Amino acid sequence: MYEINYKFTGLLGLYSEVFDTTSHISRTCAGLRSLIPPKLPGVYVVKSTISKGRVLYIGSSGKINKEMSMSGSSIRQRMFGASTPYQFDSVSNSFCFGPTTSGVPPAGYRHAVPVATITVTCLDVRCPMAPSVLEHLLIQGHINEFGNLPDANQKI
Predict the structure, then answer these.
(1) What residues pair up with 99 in beta bridges, in sequence order?
(2) How far is it, in rounded angstroms, from Cα 137 to Cα 18?
(3) pTM (two decimals)
């Protein structure tokens, strides 16, 4: 297969059959956080439920170390510990992205999407597959299908 040439929708469908995949919806950041398993490595896709499934962000967590085991943060740690290029704001219960200033952490964001209007799909990616490889394939698929990066992804 030449997955590098595939479109995002096809790739997500293909890899949803290969990896254990769960989708999560909540009205609040705290509720969403409680749904994501605490030690899950892998890839996560944040989509809008009102904008025809528009992809807002594709991210990954977990690294393969020299001993060929997983190390690093989990999806939940990555999602709720990030301050750039996005942040889950528990005060407004929003997924905020588009830093208005350079540097870490940003002073603010240009966009805020209510958590109640997003879905987070998690793919449980473990050794010997590196989560970052799948993340980059999905981002490339997004470029192939839509001609751009997901809204909150800054670069690849």
Answers:
(1) 109
(2) 14
(3) 0.92
